[in-house]
Amino acid sequence: MREEKMEPEDTEVDLSPSWSPISRDRLACANFSEFVRKKRKQDPGCDAEHSARILEDSEDDDSPISEHVQESERSISFRTEARPLPPMPRTRQKASSYPRRRSSQLWSDTVDNMRHDLSTKEIKRQEVIYELTQGEKQLIEDLSLVKKVYYEPMLKLVILTESELGQIFGTLDSLIPLHEDLLARLEGLRGAEKTVQEVGPTMTDWFPCLDAYITYCCNQVGAKALLDQKKQDRRVEQFLRLCQESSFSRKLDLWNFLDLPRSRLVKYPLLLKEIQKNTPAEHPDEEALPLAMDLIQRIITEVNLKTGEAECQFYRRGLCYSEDSQRVPEIQASRFLYCHGELKSTKGQKLHVFLFELVLVLTRPAAQDREGPVQFQVYRQPMPAAHLNLEDLPDGEPSSSGSFRGAFTGNDKVKNCFRVSTTGRSKSQSHSLQANDSFNKQQWISCLRQAMVQSRDGQTQRKVSQRLSPEPALYNNIAELTLNSDAEMLDT
């Protein structure tokens, strides 16, 4: 790593989950009826006809959250016509179809007279297959719910434009038929005694449909950034908060729902492994299950690769340079991100740090238009991973190469620190950084070590290639590198 001469940059890390955009704190919930009463007093000039029409649509659709959506929509101010909101007729509250906690029904609970010849292992196998089936049913319910009570109301109420909603929700709507297809296949496998014989061939035949996840997951990085940006708008924040307070949401926010497909994708190998564990020898599924597991792992790897490339491109586009020398070739040559998140400097300054495939980039929040894309101002000179040095600092005051004095007060002790430094093309740099806890510190250290090793190995290969090839290309083989950390990006 390099550091501006004799000006060591220590950074205490304020690391959010390293693999994804920083999540915002959930908003505190308020009582619906109290909130709406206050809102009516403060703002009687709502568009009554428009609001009432949306509410009627919600009730006609037999939505599980009709009353809560009514409260939400009535509480949002529309300035088209200044009329007092007419009293809404009292309606009997419907029982929610989406409890905060899902029932934990087992397969054995659905069987009236269980066959006595079923072994304990076979019962466990049926339980896992039933869990696989129920998981599909719950995912379909949740995705349909997202469309019905988030997308459609926000579109009708013009809380977000159709284009913005399209960016945030991506191709979510196209995933519902895929999972409905699998659910129908799985339910068709159940015999008269509610047992399933072979599940491997069905999964092997269906898994190729999951190629649709590449488009959806690649869109998620930009979708999350846009959603966080739009939450700064009062109407958007208010609508999402009221939805989260409602019983249908199970206290999950919109992004939790939008992230469900990705979470489901990485669960398939675990379920298949458990089914295989309880599948006896000579069973018809014995050969089919390994094939299905191999197929889904290859699909997940492909999704990881494409998602990593999309994430890298998204953040590369968001970098702002104060001088041309910061535009080092390693940034454009990088194909993925190992990790990124907030860390603190020696002065207690928050930095957003990106560890790309070939370079470590420290940035600060850039002044940006409220409606514009997310931007990060590059801070100091980017540090090529091939020239990085890494030092794990013990808890306490860092050594003479940097100090965190002034960043803390009272008896606060400096913990979870590490130092990166480099000497290379120009000035040497040294930055001491602090993570928000020991776990995140170890994540950073692990990723940094991996990046350093891979970059140096790649650099050696390129030197050999340059000696053998009359027309060498500096980064010809970079895209072929595969790294395990991309899989972890999907597991968080």
Which of globular, elongated, flat, extended, rod-shaped describes the shape? Answer: globular
N- to C-terminal distance: 29 Å
Please compute the radius of gyration using only Cα atoms.
27 Å
Beta-strand proportion: 5-15%
**What is the averaged pLDDT score?**
75
Provide the structure class. alpha+beta
Helix % is 40-55%
Q: What is CATH's topology name of the largest domain?
A: Dbl Homology Domain, Chain A
The overall number of domains is 2
CATH classification, class level of the largest domain: Mainly Alpha
Which CATH-level-2 architecture of the largest domain?
Up-down Bundle
Biggest sheet, in brief? 6 strands, mixed
The protein's oligomeric status is single chain
Number of strands: 12
Order of helices and strands: EHEHHEHHHHHHHHHHEHEEEEEEEEHH
**CATH evolutionary superfamily of the largest domain:** Dbl homology (DH) domain
- Count of helical segments? 16
Q: Please mark out the parts with pLDDT under 50 across 5 or more consecutive residues, or reply none.
A: 1-101, 399-411, 465-492
